[in-house]
Amino acid sequence: MSKTIIISNRLPLQVSIENEILEVSPSVGGLATGLKSFHRDGDSIWIGWSGLTNEEIPENLKEQVYNEARKEACIPVNFTSEEIDGFYYGFSNRSIWPLFHYFMEYTEWESSNWDIYKKVNQKYANAVVEHYKDGDTIWVHDYQLLLVPNMIREQRPNASIGFFNHIPFPSYEVFRTVPWREEILKGMLGANLIGFHTYDYERHFLSSVSRILRHPVDFNEVSLPDRIVKVDSFPMGIDYDQFEQAALNHSHEKFGTESDLQQRLNNHRKKSPGSKLILSIDRLDYTKGIANRIRAFEYFLEKYPEYVENIRLVMLAVPSRSNVPQYQLLKKEIDELVGRINGKFATVNWIPIWYFYRSMPFENLIDLYTSCNIALLTPIRDGMNLVAKEYIATRTDQTGVLILSEMAGSAQEMNEALIINPNNFDQISEAIYQAINMPVEEQKRRNAILQKRLKRYSVEKWASDFMKALEKSHESRNVYKATPISSQVEDEMLNQYKNSKNRIFFLDYDGTLVNFVDKPENAKPDPELLELIDSLSRLDKTKVVLISGRDKETLGTWWQDVPIDLIAEHGVWMRRTGKDWQLNEKVQNNWMETVRPVIETFCDRTPGSFIEEKHYSLAWHYRMTDPDLGEMRANELSTVLKELISNHGLSVLEGNKVLEIKSSGVNKGRAASKLLLRKNFDFIFGIGDDWTDEFLFKELPEEAITVKVGVKKTEATYFVQDTSRVRDLLKKFKESH
Ligand code: ADP
Ligand code: G6P
Question: What is the homologous superfamily of the domain 592-663 according to CATH?
Fold first, then answer.
């Protein structure tokens, strides 16, 4: 039976060894806590790191570590301390983590760490391949394993691979600073489906792919030469029932059976009945805004001194990545801040902050969630933040107020919380004030909506939505991919051609009949081509239409003696055989005055590029520019133009090393349709190489034979490699008449 292989750096269980005794505890962090229930309920194995290095596991305990993991359907992968230093403490947490959270000043680029990151990713990929069987589904998780999808793809080209990024994906302007940005994007694109928590992260990723790798991006699909990769957002949920049930059980606990922590919390309540508890829970991480939170709390106490002795911040920070210097500094900063503020405000009966620096068992988390009136979560950046969701799920009587940073992914789904900017102390302190004084009815109204949503979009739903989308994208990965023309297909085409009574050929010119050259005016048809097209068009019952984006003067001159129909400027002009040019579409060109100067500024800054002015369109050619610069400028220009022309009935066509601005309604497909209306053709053939020809492929009737030149994403049915094969095919048609 096929299974799912989950792979993440951290397994849901962590192994530690005290006095030669093995201890297994659950992992902290959204990825592990969230995915756990999917793993528990489904048929999957989970590959990841046990939390110990090779050096830390004595030889005689190695097998036991493996067996403990296997008990929970996990497969540990082992690393040396050098590997963990370079891969985990190094590249993952000193480069990617800070950069992706917009902490650029914390980001370090060490090529030795990058080398180890690659090596460890390869180890992970190999471990997956080792356990992979045909039909399995592979689900790779998070920023530590960005290269793994493609490393698996290289060994298992047909595997169904999903990738989910649990942290933000930064904007292109930030991501472009990565020295190995191409490799990272290529690594991720090994997947069939790439998921993010929010649409913004998805958008940032797609923008980096299109700008850096230059792959065509169509809505949320990336076209690689041989596959389509789908990108989508799936906001991760929690195991709602588990938290709700734990809270319900907790409320039925008998007097005297509570945990020590709960007894302390109860005592506090008894001593000062009207007072409030504010909860803060996170891993000790600079992205979580813990220092800001404490300072904002200080600001609140100064602004509203009446709450001294009547409010307390219960702060739980879980130790995390303590080998990384920034985390050590943060620990020191938080210790000092808590000490200073407690010193400043404490009275004989009261201290403002209860601070715990440790991991806690699940039951204690529930004690805290259910006992605190307010949850204050103020990350500076956070991919999702599940704590916010867990807090709401445990509020079974629907009281409680969540104050949440707008920088957390979860804020996008939790509008009914009090949403704050984590850098605005005044706003945070006002939110605390509002939370303390919020009428119970309002608390219930807000929480009822939140709970309904969280219950519906639980972690099970999240995982099953992702898996369904993965299955779909894997099945349809080749949907747009044309197939090569085999000799059998070729025979069938020629047969159909021979037996037909009315034939029509739509032929694109540049890139289809002739190769691209330095300048458009130098791509004149050679005598051999003229002869070929001439003789094809003189055959009985055969119409040849040259359908091009070129201007009518050039086309008209080059093809003046050949009895074919010409369509110029993508369909604006038409010249029937032996007749004069006629305007085929009602179009305007008064917009050119506004658009031309903008393109000219790009010509000035991009040596080798130039404007080609047609009657009803402007084309910016960049074939002769430095390739990188050209692509970069083309991207920039395309963005600028799209903004400039929006709502003006114009569109930007991205051709082969050319951008063309023209009226939206005009395209090759529309022009071809008009011709098809004139007669009943029983053999229709369309061929072209670039984006502008896709309109033709889309418009031609289903029975038409459509052929793309080059292996690219296309609506065409077949592809051929190059122009010489195009000529070869046309020759065969001519000869089999
Ligand atoms: P991140 O993934 O960045 O750590 P999240 O808020 O998404 O942040 O996830 C944190 C997870 O870790 C939650 O599921 C939470 O219940 C768990 N957790 C947080 N603090 C503790 C703690 N002290 N002990 C045990 N689990 C914790
Ligand atoms: C975040 C990351 C996870 C990571 C977790 C805990 O949730 O997205 O990939 O596992 O933090 O961090 P750690 O470094 O301890 O694995």
Answer: Trehalose-6-phosphate phosphatase related protein; domain 2 (3.30.70.1020)
